[in-house]
């Protein structure tokens, strides 16, 4: 058995933990680029803590899922303003932008040098600026991953900027920050965390450490997600989802993902839909396709037992079989009103191009079995609905 495991240098988890942020920032520098989402009020408490500690901060706002151009412009701003560090406080969009800005602030070759799939995917030459990630959704787990997912408008695809040094120096996870997330965003982001845990657990690259994280967090997410969606002020459910998101990031960064994310990456570049909503819609169909392919090709594979364990974790029943797990996933997306992919404007004619791009996506390498173009196309066709 051989594996490696890497995560953020420091993780601070708990309600009220945001109040400790300035102590950590002060160790890294006195001037920060503060990357935030569209609502500045959401980061008011953080900026107050920084100002009270005498730390200068330069605001940089991200209003939608990040594009490569946003990251490049942010890096120029960080250099011009001589920032010693970057803080990203927001959803995955904001944290990814902050991580990419920190990387590109010190690595000034054209961005195509470093970006995967559409660029040359070379490692960074210089260490990024230190980055602190503070999630306000639960989530992506981006606070503990080594990549930033960026959209290329020109190529109509979402791709990663990836380097082990892009792991934030501090992941500060304060579940109270997620109390204001609306129900639909709670559902979509929570399904992203659940998908990441499930895909990392059945991944061809899973290891005992990522297994431990998934076994701890998947049952919690299965219980807490509907509760957090329906009762947004339930801090216990919010805390469980914040933990599940954090663990999902640690798991995916070290075990990889699978076909849901293999499809969701390119699809996110083709349609304007929230990443979590895409993952949620694809998940039951991908699990069903994976199980069918494994049963057909390698019926004695240990992967089937993994899917059975997933079913037990999702349903809470030790007697559950694989079919019960799949039924639970279909029930979840119905209960959470996750729209079909046609809702976001995907049309059948786009499927062949999507499948081509999905087969090249880095996430596809973790899928427990290689799915054919036909199988992937069928998955998308079914998730399309209508
Ligand atoms: P998001 O960051 O786009 O946020 C979704 C919406 O929620 C936005 O409108 C935002 O303004 C709002 N929001 C955020 N926090 C809020 C709060 N506390 N209260 C009210 N509203 C709030 O969505 P996300 O799902 O968190 O992130 C998605 C992005 O993350 C995608 O680009 C995806 O590709 C990326 N991602 C990255 C990784 C990684 O490892 N780097 C992993 C998964 C996803």
Describe this structure in words.
It is a single chain. With 386 residues, the protein is an alpha/beta fold. Helices cover 50% and strands 11% of the residues. It has 13 helices and eight strands. It has a six-stranded parallel beta sheet, with helices on both faces. A two-stranded antiparallel ribbon has the order 6-7. α4 links the parallel β4 (85-90) and β5. α5 (183-202) runs parallel beside α7 (235-255), α5 (183-202) packs parallel to α9 (275-297) and α10 (302-315) crosses α11. It is globular. The mean pLDDT is 96. The structure holds nicotinamide-adenine-dinucleotide.
Keywords:
alpha/beta, single chain, 13 helices, 50% helix, 8 strands, 386 residues, binds nicotinamide-adenine-dinucleotide
Return the structural class: alpha/beta
Strand content: 5-15%
The N- to C-terminal Cα distance equals 46 Å
Rounded radius of gyration (Å): 20 Å
Shape: globular
What are the bound molecules?
Answer: nicotinamide-adenine-dinucleotide
Number of strands: 8
The total count of helices amounts to: 13
Portion of residues within helices: 40-55%
Give the H and E element order.
EHEHEHEHEEEEHHHHHHHHH
What's the overall average pLDDT, rounded? 96
Spatial strand arrangement across the major sheet = 1-8-5-4-2-3
* Unreliably modeled segments: none
Largest sheet: 6 strands, parallel
